Amino acid sequence: ETTMGKHRDTSKQRRYDRQLRLWGEHGQMAMEDGAVCLINGSATGSETLKNLVLPGIGNFTIVDGTDVGAADLGNNFFVEDNALGSSRASCVTQLLQELNEHVNGSYVSDDIAQVLESRPDFLHRFSLVIATQLPSKELRQVAAICASTSIPLIAVHSYGLMGYLRVMLNEHQVIEAHPQHEVPDLRVLAPPAELTAFINERYSDLSALTTAQYAHVPYVVLLVKASQQWAAQNGGAAPTTYKQKKEIRGIVESLRRTDVQGDQNIDEALNAVNTAFSRPSPPKSLAALLAKARGRVSELAAEVHGATVSTEESAISLGLRRQQLNFWVLSAGVAAFVDGEGEGLLPSVGVIPDMTADTSTYVALQTIYQQQSLVDMQAVHAHVQQICTMESLPADLISADSLKPFCKNALNLEVIEYTTIEAEYTAASASASIAAALDDGASSGALYVLLRAAQVFRAERSFWPGESDLSVESDMPVLKQFVAEVAKELGLSTCAISDDLVHEFCRWGGSELHAIASVMGGIASQEAIKAITHQYVPCNNTFIFNGMTGTTTSLKL
């Protein structure tokens, strides 16, 4: 295995400025701690890895026993003409390394099957494996290792005018989902004591305020006052139904004053009624996650205590389990908070949106919410330490840097359980999704079945259907036969795929077009970043790109 050097310079912050805005410094740290294994430096693999090297993945290793051929010169920007006949792994590693001097690159000039035969634990050293253009036999072998060691795996295949992506992240935890529409956590129905005191002190009598003062009453204050008035009229109940929120709107409308022009704060309050009058309690899916957190902590703690670290490979594998453990310890801490100090509510986020108010008032409000968030985090941390003590885990297992974003994003925590690739090949559980895709009019289901059939064809005959221009017509009926076999394996009662599409698939001849490889490389790298940073919600679990129609389909197989 050959390693190429890593250099550091002071321009790192400037280089990564834009992506730091997307996933923050902690996300960037996760990227720089990442170790990726790319199986095959094909056009698809090179494009995928390029999009990880540029944002600063820590280490990568390319495993590829292929030499640079004429096809590579036509579709892969990371090989050069003078590299014809030389190791593709070496060539791609060298050119990718030039994109970012902060990244360590290495390569192994052997097929993955040979590597695993001589070093069965080779993949254990990586935090992510990306397999591109891999035959089904080798893919299943790699997937079995990744499943048994909880190493995330992304499989990508560009085939003619289609692209296939399969994500297998085992048990994947999403900490920062970055929802498109975040609802401000204003606690209108359960205002912190400091907020209530602030409102009572400054806004006990709204009618006594001057015109200028009234125009700058923050809308959260107006909503709390309206909520208090409504509760007084309804026996202390909380307004939660549509009809009740409509009554709140009426109260807010009644707060308009003729001497105030514009009433921007009133309009802001009216616009926020639907979202502000929701209790920040765990939704059903999150409640289920929190309910099993404590049990998962005990399971994972036992695994960590029983593990031994003798090699770099086992250390990284253990690190992945500890990463899981940290998530569940934090989840258990949040669950204990919800059951205790939170009185059914999640920890306060501590961030307020922009609103009409004078600077001093806005800063005072911001401080109140931030202080409440800090108090809640300290309570969660106390629960976390108690759990660590009970499970004989280090007291400093959870750092303040990881506690803050976890509590802030508690509402959108998610755990995705991925099915294994082996199950996709051996069970008929995927039939419903594929059957639906066969009827979607976008040919995505048909393309998936055809790719599976083409892989069987290649395993039987050592070449792709239509790989020779002269064999397109003769390979068609054979491919159709394999389509029927794959459909039977998948448990499909019918699998009507047009002869035109079968002919088109044969015409592609297993080719890897750069245009498709570039698209799939971009998509695969996005999924890789989600897996590494535990930010944004990854695909679950199959993605099909139809380059003929420019359409995409996601399937859960």
UniProtKB/TrEMBL annotation:
What is one GO cellular-component annotation here? cytoplasm
Q: In which pathway does it act?
A: Protein modification; protein neddylation
THIF-type NAD/FAD binding fold domain ranges (all copies): 16-556
Q: Which GO terms describe its molecular function?
A: NEDD8 activating enzyme activity
**UniProt superkingdom:** Eukaryota
Q: Does the keyword Cell membrane apply?
A: no
What does the sequence similarity comment in the record state about its family? Belongs to the ubiquitin-activating E1 family. ULA1 subfamily.
Q: What is this protein called?
A: NEDD8-activating enzyme E1 regulatory subunit
Naturally occurring in which organism (per UniProt): Calcidiscus leptoporus
